[in-house]
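I hope you will forgive my troubling you with a question about protein structure. I am sending you one protein, given as its amino acid sequence and as whole-number tokens for its backbone shapes. Thank you for your consideration; the sequence and its tokens are set out here:
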Amino acid sequence: MNGSVKSGSAAKQTRGERARDTRRRILAAARAEFVANGYHAARMATIAERANVSVQMLYFAFGTKAKLMSALIAVAVLGEGRVAPPDTEWYAALVGESTAAGVVRSFVLGSGEIFERAGPLLLSQRAGATTDPELAADAAAGDALRAATYRDVIELAAAKGPLRHGLDIDAATDILVAIASPAMHTEFVSDRGWSHDRTIAWLAETLPQLICGDAQEHGAVCR
């Protein structure tokens, strides 16, 4: 009987591992298809073929092309473990910064990998949202969540030191949302030919100067 229980547990674990492997294959195939062809031209049948699964399984797992894109973006932003940025180690280090400029700089440096993973997908999502209401709703929800997170960063920075003269919380948040974005990262790397490291270094140098009144005073600029 004990052997039977162990065998059943092993079988369940194996099925779980297979399911996770299948999901990873689907997401990898979807990323390749969306990035290569854009949301509108991407075909679920091609994604299924790339992932070596049936189209029926693909729809069963994700429901719609819009939901597949949204799941892919969630993994790109949160990682496989689905850990929100405020719960990460780099965000905890950001909270420990002693200056406004240090907070903004640390946020940019910590977000770099997210920009790299999510940028091309978010551009594809934005293009697809023009004609797909479901995708548009998901994109709007994601934008609102990002803006709220960025506002939290600005409020934290303002608690550590002054914002640049003439800026309030709203204006500083707008600057951070517009410039410290996956889309901006993709523009520099894919369209302008910058490396990822150069792009993040420039953002980490520039944004504290644009937003924080103590950027030069505390030497928070990244050279």
Notes: The CA atoms of residues 103 and 179 lie 16 Å apart. The chain has two domains: 1-63, 79-223. The chain is about 75% helix and 0% strand.
